[in-house]
Amino acid sequence: MSDIESTLTRIQGHKGVIGVIIVNHQGVPLRSTFEHDAMTKQYADLIPSLADLARNLVRDLDPQNDLEFLRIRSHKHEIMVAAKDDFVLLVIQDPTAAA
Amino acid sequence: MPTSPTKKDKVKGKKKAQDQSQSQDYVPPPPPMPGDEAFAMPIREVVKPDNQLRLSDIELTEEVAKMLTANNPAAPKNIVRFNMKDKVFKLEPMVEQTVVHYATDGWLLHKSSDEAKRQMDMEKMEQEASARFQADLDRASHEHKEHGDVEPPDDSRQLRNQFNFSERAAQTLNYPLRERETFTEPPPTATVSGVCTQWEIYDEYIKDLERQRLDEASKSKGGKKHASGGQHGGANASKSNEHVPTLQSPVLMHCLGTLDRMVNQNMFEEVAMDFKYWDDASDAFRPGEGSLLPLWRFVSDKSKRRQVTSICWNPMYDDMFAVGYGSYEFLKQASGLINIYSLKNPSHPEYTFHTESGVMSVHFHPEFANLLAVGCYDGTVLVYDVRLKKDEPIYQASVRTGKHNDPVWQVVWQVDEASKALQFVSISSDGNVNLWTLTKSELIPECLMKLRVVKAGETSDEDPMASGPAGGCCMDFCKMPGQESIYLVGTEEGAIHRCSKAYSSQYLSTYVAHHLAVYAVHWNHIHPNMFLSSSADWSIKLWDVHDSKHPVMTFDLNDSIGDVAWAPYSATVFSAVTDDGRVHVFDLAQNKLLPLCSQKIVKKAKLTKLVFNPKQPIVLVGDDKGAVTSLKLSPNLRITSKPEKGQKFDDLEIAKLDAVVEIARKSDADLGKNA
């Protein structure tokens, strides 16, 4: 759908955004805006398990609740994760570069 | 003496016997005398051992009494036992004196003892039983000889052979054992592990509920229409089973949208913080002055070439607003654009709609926040449903259905509980005020009013043909409950008319004060009698409804005014935008002549529109370069009355404005007197 494509391109074009990755539920990256595959593979391997843990936490506390988003802010970047049943969507941005 | 020798003899005899036995050792018997072969008298010799007691004769004749008692000499004579009752040692009075010399157990019973009697009874019974059995046997054999089959006698109680009973057993050959083992290949195993958490259980229950509901639904449908019910159930199932490719799923779209906002939040982090929390602290030090802090700037590629003609906040979502783009210039007319932005994503509009001609006015329905009414430059009115993703309006007025002939300057939704249909009013330069009704298929106009030019001093009895239609530029409906059918109309000639929906030919009153077109009229949000008007003659006038001749106050801003608006939180605060790129904020309660703030917002652009946010302390300002800027009002500009218990906010505000008006009128009167 072109809407999705245009939104992806737009996000990628925002200030400070380093990359956008979409990973399917098996851990295979579907889309990635990184040039080097190594980075993609690393993110695709590590992030989904953390998102699962986070979802476990939220749902254990209250089964009617569910995880919406996960944001990990480090010194250098911020990783924003949207974890759903079919896919995991990651955006890596450097917030200070946006200024 | 004869007794004593006997006694002596006895004693002696005894002793002699002893002695003899003793003396054997000492003295051998005398050898028999050779000459005496015949019976010789034995010689008696008394021999006294040496250690015999030597007693005197008197002592020898003494009678010694000997007693024989039944006491056991070996039994202890003084046994002491501890008495637990008295807790003291007590002497046993009687001690057992019996000595048992010999004891043995025997098996003889006395004939007359109980045991013996019982034994004898038993023997008798056994004898009787065996006699009976024998009798039975004899009888049986006798009968057998005579009759044949006969019941054998019961011999279960009889022990056949009581003495010679022996066990008989035989052992079979024990075959030697040998172990045999085989191993089969173990079945292929796979370790399956699972986690059972509370939410997984919950999910399963929910799925089960769904299944049950589907079953019930299909069952009930099957009762009515069997075939279609099955189909429907099948269709439902197939819909849920259908797998949308991940990259095209709507869920992904939604996530992308939210992530976009998150990225924007990071980009505009300071702005977001300012929007929420920044309050200019220096306002405390300069009373009577305020400032406007620029926040986000909403601009998109397509909008850069157009002018902002209308902004409207969404009544349901506080962060959403619609911007209509068009052109005010007669000669440069292009297609129109509507962008619906959210404050959460300043870089990209949430929805975009394209129209054929420039958009002049947009308005969200107060109740159904997805309906957007649009008025265009070519006179058409459109209604969009924002929720649909299509770029088409759901209703469009065309030449056939009675669109206006001139640009539609303003559209306002009507909320009428009586009528079920949705209605909105539009005003246009061709002098018609139309009420449009939304039916199932189209818009139906109804002319509420035909505006006519009213010259100052003339009554409306004038020949209607002489005065032509007046062009309406703006309108505002009264928001006071009970007066919702009254509205103000600003015309191109500079007159403001107060009209009612009930009367279609007459004005309730006319206010003539401006020399040029009136571009904006607004009722005060709180005060029911005051309204503002702004005009191309560079002035803003504050009117009291009852006084149609003179405005209460006039403000001259030295430049053409684009728009004016009342603040929702105060009856005395209003703001205006001018063509030199400035925003002016007035608070009549603090300063009746000068604005509290006059700030230049954009360089080289004219500001065209201004709206206050009903809840947040921000204003949106649109300019003619297609950009919308949001500004935060500093605290001095937001002074509002705080009602205490028993007071109403509205009353306080109305009182404030009334006070201002009073003073203004008094000063006017003074001026008038003096002049």
TrEMBL record, chain A:
Could you confirm whether the keyword Cytoplasm appears in this record? yes
**Major location, coarse class?**
cytoplasm
Q: Which residues cross the membrane?
A: none
Q: Where is the Roadblock/LAMTOR2 domain?
A: 4-93
Keyword Cytoplasm attributed: yes
What GO cellular component entries does it have?
cytoplasm; cytoplasmic dynein complex; microtubule
InterPro entries attached to this UniProt entry: DYNLRB1/2, Roadblock/LAMTOR2_dom
Question: Where does this one sit in the cell?
Answer: Cytoplasm, Cytoskeleton
- Specify the domain of life of the species encoding this protein: Eukaryota
- What's a single GO BP term from this record? microtubule-based movement
Q: Name one Pfam family in it.
A: Robl_LC7
Q: Which SUPFAM superfamilies match?
A: Roadblock/LC7 domain (SSF103196)
Any one GO MF annotation of this record: dynein intermediate chain binding
User: Keywords, A to Z?
Assistant: Cytoplasm, Cytoskeleton, Dynein, Microtubule, Motor protein, Transport
Role of this protein: Acts as one of several non-catalytic accessory components of the cytoplasmic dynein 1 complex that are thought to be involved in linking dynein to cargos and to adapter proteins that regulate dynein function. Cytoplasmic dynein 1 acts as a motor for the intracellular retrograde motility of vesicles and organelles along microtubules.
What is stated as this protein's family in its record?
Belongs to the GAMAD family.
PANTHER family membership: DYNEIN LIGHT CHAIN ROADBLOCK
Q: What is this protein called?
A: Dynein light chain roadblock
From TrEMBL, chain B:
Q: Does the keyword Cell membrane apply?
A: no
Q: Where are the WD repeats?
A: 511-553
Give the CC-aspect GO terms. microtubule; outer dynein arm
User: Which portions of the sequence form the region Disordered?
Assistant: 1-38, 216-242
Keywords attached to this Swiss-Prot or TrEMBL record, sorted alphabetically, are: Cell projection, Cytoplasm, Cytoskeleton, Dynein, Microtubule, Motor protein, Repeat, WD repeat
Name the InterPro entries on file. Dynein_IC, WD40/YVTN_repeat-like_dom_sf, WD40_repeat_dom_sf, WD40_rpt
One Pfam family per UniProt: WD40
- GO MF, any single term: dynein light chain binding
**Annotated compartments:** Cytoplasm, Cytoskeleton, Cilium axoneme
Q: Which GO terms describe its biological process?
A: cilium movement; outer dynein arm assembly
Q: Which family does it belong to?
A: Belongs to the dynein intermediate chain family.
Q: Which PANTHER family match?
A: DYNEIN AXONEMAL INTERMEDIATE CHAIN 1, DYNEIN INTERMEDIATE CHAIN
SMART domains registered for this protein in UniProt: WD40 (SM00320)
What's the protein here called?
Dynein intermediate chain
The question of whether Secreted is a record keyword is answered with no
